[in-house]
Amino acid sequence: MAMRSLLPALSLLLLLSFHLSSFALPLSTNSRWIVDDETGKRVKLTCVNWVSHVDTVVAEGLNKQPLDSISSLISTMGFNCVRLTWPLFLFTNESYSNLTVRSSFQTFNLIESIAALQVHNPHLIDLPLIDAFK
Question: 46: domain range?
Fold first, then answer.
């Protein structure tokens, strides 16, 4: 039960570590607070959940709109971070290690979704699932 209650926090930490290692944002911690390194002011994370743990292991909606459009919408709604739901089986089931986004969708016969994903987010379609998740 204790581990289950830690999963949301671990998900956020892992997401932040991916994000921070990719973009080197000027954020750090001071005691229990996240602070802006430049100003020293506290940063309040206002997060939204984005489902990505379902069978295809791809964030929902990427077959409906470009990633940039979804990101912009999230930002204009006042959110400054995204919590992707954590697909544990992506990291615990070795059969997912070489699976691409396309092959994941093919597994579930989601042919129309593949075509839509190619239109809206063609850069993702042939990535390994782990890279698309990052």
Answer: 26-133
